[in-house]
TrEMBL record:
One Gene Ontology cellular component: Las1 complex
One GO biological process term: rRNA processing
The name this protein goes by in its record: LAS1-like protein
GO molecular function, one term: endonuclease activity
InterPro entries membership: Las1
Top-rank taxon, per record: Eukaryota
Amino acid sequence: MASNARVVCWSNREEWTQTYEYLYSFHDISLQRRGIARVLAWKSRSGGKLPLAVESTANLISALLESQTAQYSYSSQMTISMALVRFVNGFTDKSQKGVYARSVQSIADEIGLPDWLVDLRHESTHAAKLPSQQTLCAGVKVALDWLEEGYWKAQM
């Protein structure tokens, strides 16, 4: 008999919902840190196999928190850039099927990822100079909105 059951790393629906609420508590950094810690526990519990949206949310919020505590340092820019690059690549790479590689932009268009984030990823990866801290933080906020609408709220 085939089963449609999914194995997940959270204990129950309430834990998942609470983690979402913690992560998106932009008014309370301590709650966001609790959400990140819980995602890290899930990652450990699952052997590193988390839904990409969950891991990306935690990575982006962690990078954003670092930027808020750092004094606009280069390492902070690098951290945010890496989180954004991994976010865009993670969602576009899983659609790379077939013999020939497709452009990141064409895949992003198919999944509804904003063009601006793809451009920001490209600039972070290939430009001689990283985008400004303000631009990167704005990119994180756009990415988090996309994740909230496309994953978190869609699951509720």
